[in-house]
Amino acid sequence: MPANKTILVVVESIDVDGSSGAKANVALIRNLHKAGFDVKVHHYSQKNIHLDDIECINIRENRWSLLFFLSRFERYTRYFLKVEPNKQLEKLFGFSFALFNDRNSIVSTLKKSKHTKSRLVITLSQAGSFRPHHALLKLPELHYKWLAYVHDPYPMHLYPRPFAWVEPGYRKKWKLIRDISEKAKFSGFPSLLLKDWMGSYYPKFNDTGYIIPHQISDLDVEKKDLPDYFKIENFNLLHAGALLKPRDPKILVEAFHTFLERNPDAKKESNLIFVGGKSIFSDWLKNKKSVLKQLILVENKLPFNSVYTLQRLSSVNIILEAKSEISPFLPGKFPHCIQANKPILYLGPCLSESNRLLGKDYPYSTVIDDKEGIAGIIEQLYKRWKSSPEDFYLNRPDLSKYLDSNHLKDVINEIIGNIE
Predict the structure, then answer these.
(1) How far apart are CA 27 and CA 6, in angstroms?
(2) pLDDT range class, residue 285, cuts 50, 70, 90
(3) pLDDT one-digit tens code per residue, 344-380
């Protein structure tokens, strides 16, 4: 493999059962490898995890530093004394002692790694954390070939409503992203809307940004392990993923109930399934289930491959986003839904990355609180499923191509070609 095809990926976690962010990270890493790049992974999962044919190095936490002991002191103070010094500490320093120790642990490992000689260095994080990015800022000798991937808006006050809130130390968090935007040679975003959103606050992103969407990756379907509640012959509508507070499922459930009342024959063969653990809506959903037996709640955490199997075998996959004016996110499960090749029921803002990709003429999209609209769409889907189940597919090869390793290869080769 030529030297200019070697890529070092410094990643927060590759534990796919730990978070949706890790799933997206692993899919991107696998597709870099599939595209023909020689990928080396340094990860901070704190687990020995291996990806087939890809060299993975687990970065160890430094447990003998002053920062480590300070972080544990802060944690135990919070646990035993029921006080929260972390908020005051973050107001002062911007970040926790634990994050600073994690950053230094990553920096120490990278300084000793031969893989920093790779042609390109990519940093991947998840949720509200940018540990690999923190680390790369401390390694200026790598900035000329650094691609900083920004998976979500940050800091939190830059999220669109209703997600936005002001964190302790928000000024220093703002400075972090400003420094990343100015120091990294390249930046990457999973969606065009997110690139434009972040570029409106940090103008350098408009010059350095590339769109690298969440990826479709090869996974097996495990039909032999189907749970008892999942009848493959039924009309199954599946929502897979956590129900965060702004992702209110109540109107969806009421719309499904309305659909069943209007279509009595569908009652015996239709199910609305929520998989993703407990949420603030759990009590409401359980009460609703007492009068709606077609509602299925799975609150125990399932392995990623099990969830993916349900997505592939369901009749309809649901993407549920918050009520907002805009959703610049590309949901992590969007590629899984495209790969499942089943119709997607999209419930979210009109101005969203999902709607942008599905297209203005996509028929199964509406806002989260449109009860009549949702009920009508479910009825359309049911009648289509009932009349021609053998042809009940999404059929979007354009989106499959956009999310696959060949498109990723083109983008990365363009980036590598711009390294001076």
Answers:
(1) 18
(2) very high
(3) 999 999 999 999 999 999 999 999 999 999 999 999 9
Write the CB contacts of 185 (distance below 8 Å, at least 6 apart in sequence): 143, 144, 145, 146, 147, 208, 418, 419
Q: Do 295 and 285 meet the contact criterion of CB atoms below 8 Å apart? A: yes
Residues 190, 149: Cα–Cα separation, whole Å: 8
CA-CA-CA-CA torsion sign (398, 25, 304, 252): negative
Residue with tokens 């999942």: 230
- State how beta strands 344-347 and 365-366 pair: parallel
Q: What does the pLDDT read at residue 2? A: 43
3-state secondary structure of 225: helix
Task: Please tell me whether residues 50 and 172 are part of one structural domain.
Answer: yes
Residue 53 tokens, joined = 């044919």
User: What's the pTM?
Assistant: 0.92
Based on the fold, state whether residues 144 and 175 are members of the same structural domain: yes
User: In the chain, how many domains are there?
Assistant: 2
**Mean local confidence (pLDDT), 254-279:** 95
In a shared domain, residues 336 and 412: no
Domain with 346, as residue range(s), is 223-400
pLDDT of 279 strictly over 90? no
What crossing angle do the helices spanning 371-387 and 250-262 adopt, rounded to 10°? 50
- Mean pLDDT for 401-419 is 97
Decide: 188 and 212 in contact? Cβ < 8 Å.
Answer: yes
**Sequence-ordered list of residues with C-beta below 8 angstroms from that of 6, at least 6 positions apart, any chain:** 37, 38, 39, 40, 115, 117, 118, 119, 120
